[in-house]
């Protein structure tokens, strides 16, 4: 009976610790569904999710292929919170391209995350917009470029060529993909 009581006491203690660890206060301002963001509350947040996969189609697959290398085959591999395409063939060998589109994102947030990850970030301009070019340290095979989206948030492309393959500058490809996105966005 003593070991059963001890086991029940330990289980109760573990449950109490688990439940206590779930509560957390998050700083910021809560917004109602369909609320507003930005200065003056002028930009509405899309809560209908009617454009959920449209972001993955903002640049045509053929245009992605042209941006990343000659005669590349681009195969969609994932559509969701981010969009991914596998790269094969062509002059650049193989790799992956990723698009992210965060309605609540900002360049300052991107730079802070890059700093935290010890990535190298440079301010650049894409279609007249302040943008951020990002490289991982000692990785010449990948690069990301982020820019303010056409209406709200931030759009970013990462190009990751397979190490050891012959390819162009991944930052040039990522920049071109951001340019195409800004040209075609909404």
Task: Name its key features.
186 residues; seven-stranded antiparallel β-sheet; 4 helices; 9 strands; 30% helix; globular
Describe this structure in words.
By secondary structure, the protein is α+β, with helices and mostly antiparallel strands. Helix content is 30%, strand content 30%. It is built from four helices and nine strands; from the N terminus they run αββαβββαββββα. It has helices spanning 2-22, 61-68, 107-117, 170-184, and strands spanning 36-37, 43-44, 73-79, 82-88, 95-102, 120-126, 129-135, 142-148, 154-161. It has a seven-stranded antiparallel β-sheet. It has a two-stranded antiparallel sheet with strand order 1-2. A hairpin with a 5-residue loop joins β8 (142-148) and β9 (154-161). It is globular and about 50 Å long. 25% of the residues are buried. The model has no long low-confidence stretch (mean pLDDT 80).
Q: What's this entry about, in short?
A:
It contains 4 helices and 9 strands, in the order αββαβββαββββα. With about 190 residues, the protein is an alpha+beta fold.
Radius of gyration: 22 Å
What's the pLDDT, averaged over the residues? 80
What global shape is seen? Answer: globular
Q: Count of helices?
A: 4
How many strand elements?
9
Percentage of residues in helical conformation: 25-40%
Q: Helix/strand-derived class?
A: alpha+beta
Strand content: 25-35%
Largest beta sheet, briefly? 7 strands, antiparallel
- SSE sequence, one letter per element: HEEHEEEHEEEEH
Low-confidence stretches: none
Distance between the termini: 69 Å
Q: Tell me the strand order in the biggest sheet.
A: 3-4-5-9-8-7-6
